[in-house]
Amino acid sequence: MSIKIVVAGAGIGGLCAALALAKRGFEVAVYEQSSQVAEVGAGLQLSPNAMHVLKALGIAEQVKAKGFRPKSAVMRHFQSGKTYFTVPLGDTALHKFAADYLHIHRADLLSVLYAECKQANVSIHLGQQLQSYHHRTDKLSIKFENDQNLEADLLIGADGIKSKVQACMLGQTPAQFTGQVAWRGVVAADKLPQGLIKPNANLWVGPGKHFVSYYLRGGELVNFVAVQERSDWQKESWHEAGDIQELRNTFVDWHPEVTELLAATEQCFLWALFDRQPLSHWTDKNVALLGDACHPMLPFLAQGAAMAIEDSYALAHCLVEQTVADQSSLNQNHIQNALLKYQQIRLSRASSIQGGARKNAGLYHMNSAFDKTKLAVLSGLASLGLSDTVAANKLDVIYSYNITEELS
């Protein structure tokens, strides 16, 4: 098609958007500030709502081959190990939602997306930090930190929570520190006692902190994320080394499945969790935001990657729909209409899930009498065999959404 699209950011959202657009025939160029497309030691969860998009993009099987299919999602008490709920995944999720629930190493997903983007003739430029954009009569002028300038018809800001595109669109506003930090790391499964880590999405909840563990790469690795409430660490880098002994001490009185995993851990990373309030709009004429640039997700519903993936499909769909509707190549008015439709489709759902993730922090950390009461209710329901249904119903609202059918 006769327009040039620039994507700022080669993370999951940026590459997924680039691939979705390229497969629809658009000319796409991605500009990434880092010198390489890679991610150190981090896993993520791909729920069925995300997998529907990856299937539509033709990469679901590649992703599945690099991932791990958990049997269930399980929430347990930090010391006793008492189960609050178990939500079946695996074959149950596949039959229920017509798509898998997967765990995958972020680097593995990025490698699939990167290779597919190159195959689809997406041009990817590394070490290029976008600085600002300016509207001209019929084009966008985009400036980079190295003083390079280029023109484009459409700019997509997929450049994360500290988005330069968002700052240019809405003004410079700092993200808000949540008072929580996250430790993360991976451990080779053969370094752990056999059977220690269950083949689930394991969630342990306790006062002021929680712990998540799950398998990656077909069971070769165990990934963990440990979130703690503290105010003395506000670095956002995912590559900042953490003190492994400090991490062990932080969870010293937790269940043996947690402490033995940390005892086998040789390296960890520590980063602060930042957040933003939901935005009222994501577009500025022929500029649109996507993923964490417009709705950063705290990791309490495991939907950060999924929401960016859904965004990418909606954006490509809206641009193609506008082209078909006008039976011509896209002009500036068509682009703006498409972006407003994209915002209309995505803003409410993403903002709702963003808020839901924020609320879960209190539940996971037993922060208030209300949160403790909710856990007590879950515990009571568990004794009656009802908590699994309650938990599943809450997750079904997220997982059952299939944007590829919604927009067909």
State the gist of this model.
The chain has 13 helices and 18 strands.
Provide an overview of this structure.
- The chain is built from 13 helices and 18 strands.
- It has one domain: 3-Layer(bba) Sandwich (FAD/NAD(P)-binding domain), CATH 3.50.50.
- By secondary structure, it is of the alpha/beta class.
- The strands form four sheets. Strands 5-4-13-14-15-12-16 form a seven-stranded mixed beta sheet.
- The chain has helices spanning 12-23, 48-56, 60-66, 90-97, 106-119, 164-170, 244-250, 256-263, 304-326, 332-364, 369-383, 387-399, 403-406; strands at 4-8, 27-32, 43-46, 72-77, 83-88, 102-105, 123-126, 130-135, 140-144, 149-152, 154-157, 176-188, 201-206, 209-216, 221-229, 269-275, 283-284, 287-289.
Strand order of the largest sheet: 5-4-13-14-15-12-16
Number of strands: 18
Summarize the biggest pleated sheet.
7 strands, mixed
Low-pLDDT residue spans: none
* First-last Cα distance: 21 Å
| CATH top-level class | Alpha Beta
The CATH architecture can be named as 3-Layer(bba) Sandwich
- Count of all domains: 1
CATH topology grouping: FAD/NAD(P)-binding domain
Structural class: alpha/beta
| Residue share in β-strands | 25-35%
Supply database-style keywords:
alpha/beta; single chain; 6-stranded mixed beta sheet; 13 helices; 18 strands; 408 residues; 7-stranded mixed beta sheet; FAD/NAD(P)-binding domain
List the helices and strands and how they pair.
Layout (H helix, E strand, L loop, with lengths): L3 E5 L3 H12 L3 E6 L10 E4 L1 H9 L3 H7 L5 E6 L5 E6 L1 H8 L4 E4 H14 L3 E4 L3 E6 L4 E5 L4 E4 L1 E4 L6 H7 L5 E13 L12 E6 L2 E8 L4 E9 L14 H7 L5 H8 L5 E7 L7 E2 L2 E3 L14 H23 L5 H33 L4 H15 L3 H13 L3 H4 L2
Parallel strand pairs: 1-2, 1-11, 2-7, 4-13, 11-18
Antiparallel strand pairs: 3-6, 4-5, 8-9, 9-10, 12-15, 12-16, 13-14, 14-15, 17-18
Helix pairs in contact: 1-5, 1-9, 2-9, 9-10
